[in-house]
Amino acid sequence: MNELEDLVRTAQAAFVASSTANDLENAKAQFLGKSGRITELMKGMAALSVEEKKTRGAAINAAKQAIEGALNERRQALADAELQAQLKAEALDVTLPGRQRAQGGLHPVSLTLERIEGIFGSMGFEVADGPEIETDWFNFTALNTPADHPARSMHDTFYVEGGHLLRTHTSPMQIRHAVQHVKRYRDRIDAGQGMPEIRVIAPGRTYRVDSDATHSPMFHQVEALVIDEGINLGHLKWTVEEFCKAFFEIDKIELRARPSFFPFTEPSLEWDMRCDRSVPGKITFGTGNDWLELGSSGMVHRKVLENCGIDSGRYQGFAFGFGLDRMAMLKYSMPDIRSFFEADLRWLKHYGFAALDLPTLDGGLSK
Ligand code: DAH
């Protein structure tokens, strides 16, 4: 084997032995670089005759081309291997199960509110919304509860600068809504044509200085108000009854009215519903020997009507108010009102309100 063939083989072997692009470039320099073997051989031709140069030059060129061919081949092979390795490392297994998305759910308070709005909506009630920071006038005085009235002591609340307070009940919405109503129909009223009836519910947040298993400093109430000519206690009873049947999804219920006192109603009544609580943790409505408190109500006090600019000689009204969270607790058998506001997903899941499994940060699934 001549010297050039030998050189080509050595180069081929060196290239094959290079396992990275960097090694390969170093190997290339040995043979094809400025001071590589081929360049040296070229330089060595200086002393040769023209004839010898021709044959020797052609032979060196052929060797050079063979070495370059081997280099390119190896370059390609390394590039292919690198691509394969990358593809393997970044491989996607399309058969793996997908990551589950967190599936949200409505909070039981929101669900209860939606149900209540739906039921009253079907009975022709509007839904009104009002401020949680109220004036003393709307929260107390206009509701026939003047500054020194003992009934105020049951409604201790959070006072804000400027004579405002966090409303202690949704009853101020009776005043706000009725005042607006009278304003809207001012011309008709002044012309002696009277005003259309008021039939409204006002759900919302309310506040009191209270906290135990059945009281939370922030809670929700729903107020209902109906004002028209000839409204009487029978209308009130029917409405409470129909609402309870629809809300608890039972045909047969039994209600009991107890006399009570509220400054803004006369007479005032509290409603209880017959229930069976003999099985611990379970309430059955419609049978049993127990009574469950539902809410408070009454015929709107003459002074309240007058504070709204309504002719109390012509119009009568009934109103009732009940705790929305309380209704949710009864509906879903939840024992502690405070859990509603702790934002604990485990609690929501336990009652079937939240979410399937939630993705965790590392991409796994929480159980
Ligand atoms: N606002 C009363 C409370 O929170 C409840 C109430 C009583 C509302 C009688 C009414 C009503 O509409 O007529 O204690």
SSE inventory with pairings:
Elements: H1 3-17, H2 21-32, H3 37-43, H4 50-89, H5 108-122, E1 126-127, E2 133-135, H6 136-139, E3 159-160, E4 164-166, H7 172-184, H8 186-190, E5 198-207, E6 218-228, H9 233-248, E7 255-262, E8 265-276, E9 284-285, E10 290-300, H10 302-307, E11 316-323, H11 324-332, H12 345-350
Parallel strand pairs: 1-5
Antiparallel strand pairs: 2-4, 3-4, 5-6, 6-11, 7-8, 8-9, 8-10, 10-11
Helix pairs in contact: 1-2, 1-4, 2-4, 5-11
The chain binds 3,4-dihydroxyphenylalanine (DAH).
The site of 3,4-dihydroxyphenylalanine has 12 residues, from strand 8, strand 10 and strand 11.
Can you put this structure into words, describing what you see?
With 367 residues, the protein is an alpha+beta fold. It has twelve helices and eleven strands. The chain has helices at residues 3-17, 21-32, 37-43, 50-89, 108-122, 136-139, 172-184, 186-190, 233-248, 302-307, 324-332, 345-350, and strands at 126-127, 133-135, 159-160, 164-166, 198-207, 218-228, 255-262, 265-276, 284-285, 290-300, 316-323. The relative contact order is 0.11. The chain binds 3,4-dihydroxyphenylalanine. The site of 3,4-dihydroxyphenylalanine has 12 residues, from strand 8, strand 10 and strand 11. 3,4-dihydroxyphenylalanine (DAH) is lined by residues 169, 171, 223, 262, 265, 268, 296-298, 319-321.
